[in-house]
Write a structure and sequence with these properties.
By secondary structure, this protein is α+β, with helices and mostly antiparallel strands. It is 15% helix and 36% strand. The chain contains three helices and five strands. The chain has a five-stranded antiparallel beta sheet, with no helix packed on it. A hairpin with a 2-residue loop joins strand 3 and strand 4 (114-126). It starts with 13 loop residues before the first strand and ends in a 6-residue tail after the last strand. The relative contact order is 0.23.
């Protein structure tokens, strides 16, 4: 059962350094072979100073928090449901992104098998100058839902 008192809890900023190899491995795992993720010359010709991270790359960032502590449920019981990312600018190799995560909502939604518990987390990534790079919002479902 999700801890409803988790709403508003946030993590301290956690530094994530974006490396070329990480970008390439992430793109490969998606089966996306766009040269902008692999080839520096191509990325430069496309207007970037180095290779660019795929749009969903921020899901690989660490927030420095144990979700079990924030939400009160084991990680194995959480399922990713929805994800949206709003960018201020692309993420590129060499970026250093400070990520914080906040529990925005804890609620229940109807499902075909009854009510299901949902946690909504909001992450924010900022560069070393404190400028916003992206905002990410994700919904996590509790596997098995609430009994009762």
């Amino acid at each position: 059962m999700l801890d409803k008192n988790a709403v508003g809890r946030s993590t301290p900023p956690m530094l994530n350094e974006v490396e070329k190899g990480s970008i390439r491995r992430f793109a490969e795992s998606l089966g996306d072979y766009n040269p902008i993720y692999y080839d520096e010359d191509y990325a430069r010709a496309s207007g970037f100073h180095t290779i660019v991270a795929p749009p969903t790359f921020p899901v690989s960032f660490t927030t420095g928090s144990d979700l079990r502590e924030m939400l009160g449920v084991p990680l194995r019981n959480l399922l990713a449901a929805e994800l949206s990312i709003e960018y201020e600018r692309p993420i590129v190799a060499g970026d250093k992104v400070l990520v914080t995560s906040r529990v925005a909502e804890v609620n229940e939604r109807p499902s075909a098998t009854g009510k299901i518990e949902v946690a909504v987390l909001e992450d924010e990534g900022r560069d070393e100058d404190g400028k916003l790079v992206y905002r990410l919002r994700r919904s996590l479902l509790v596997r098995g839902g609430k009994e009762g």
